[in-house]
């Protein structure tokens, strides 16, 4: 039984339920054989971007170019920025956030129903970082649409540029 289970796993049969059913043993036994006897672990399949040979060559060349470009530690003077919208509503994952109850009424009383608003309260926050510092946070006023003019005038000119001049001094920097 253990030998045939091991053989099936080594051949690439990954469905532990199917192996347990075929061998007439419990799934727990199959899991124990895989973990303890075979010193192995079960991994989920993961999707990844398909790369053909040409794409891999291009990526390798670009990586080598970046390594050459940043040999003198110039990458330490790059400023990265991002913005994030924070909402006050609870985020939940239907699959993982569960309510344990005896019946549906009890589950409803314990918070099974999560109510959503069409336009919940939120705040947008912008920040920038470099290898040795961080900019002040920018809280965008509610209802403001961040378009190019607003971004340039209110964030880059009023916050990033003065901070970068103070932070870097006479050093060269890149945004």
TrEMBL record:
Molecular function terms, GO-annotated? nucleic acid binding
Q: What PANTHER family does the annotation carry?
A: PROTEIN CBG27172 (PTHR46068), TRANSPOSASE IS30-LIKE HTH DOMAIN-CONTAINING PROTEIN (PTHR46068:SF1)
| Protein's name in the database | Transposase
